[in-house]
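sorry for the late reply, my laptop died twice this morning and i had to redo everyting from scratch. anyway the thing you sent over, i finally got around to it. pasting the sequence first so we're on the same page, its 157 residues, then the predicted structure underneath. double check i copied it right bc i was rushing
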Amino acid sequence: MEAVSLADRILVLEDGATLQYATPTELTRHPRSPWVARMLGRNAWPGTAKGASLRLTGGADLVAADPLPAERTPGLAVVGPEAVSLHTARPEGSPRNVWPGTVREIAAQGGRLRVLVDGEPEVVAEITPSAAADLALAEGSQVWVSVKATEVTFVPL
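ok and here's the structure:
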């Protein structure tokens, strides 16, 4: 995280080989591996393009607003934790991606909380303490997760 805040460009190595060399913005928006995404605090799920959606390795489908590459193109679905909403009941309305989950962990990070939710897929949400209080969140709480299609970025691998 320090490199992202200080550097003009960042070189990421994996097993001694260059995995990615990019600006901090490019690295954050288009990480080339789930490890890089997690290191930067992003959600990233491997999968393939499947029509208008992304078929994740675990079997779930995510809808993305931007056009996807050719069918069966492998890649990562990347979503920032700030774009993830948590609900106590299944949400209605515009979110195209909705799934149930269980809160595994809640950790303070600065003035916000990072909430790890088990589900398909597992996700990290970033919320305010007042939102957590309104939802009465605790480890083991059952929640609904939602992510708008406009917040899903597909990064071809």
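The chain has one domain: 2-156.
thats about all i looked at so far, will dig more tmrw
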